[in-house]
From TrEMBL:
Domain FAS1-like dehydratase: start-end pairs: 6-135
Native source species: Pollutimonas bauzanensis
Record's protein name: Acyl dehydratase
Gene3D superfamilies, alphabetized: Hotdog Thioesterase
Amino acid sequence: MELDRSLVGSATAPFVVEVEKGAIRAFADAIGDDNRLARDEDFARSKGYGGLVAPPTFPASFRPPERQPWLLGLDEGRILAGEQYFKYARPVVSGDVLTCRLHFVRVDEKAGRSGAMLLVVQELRAADAHGDLVVANGRVVIYRAAGRLPAA
């Protein structure tokens, strides 16, 4: 498989995400989350938050402006989304300005019904203006071997 394993341990250039109220509400709508913390700013502030509170999976929407160097040159038709996890130091709230980097953590190999695959483990780390980690979003990209596709 054509993945450049020498890039394990590298990261994308930092990119900034400005967390907006409208983005939080739109994300909550998209996932069917009716939590008032994500919709009613006065309510969120009354509960001690600095603004609307983003749903727990909101950081999945944080994307670097360019494709990750370790995925360049791979056949996109063989890439699938795998599992994700979120580890929070504190909630993401509207008004946050987060500096993010996507890190290439490791590569695992696995045999599946449709052949060999690589599990590309990445972690997005988002820090606040003080440099404190707010959330880490682990992402696994599955890269299937060339050959037959799984049955539909």
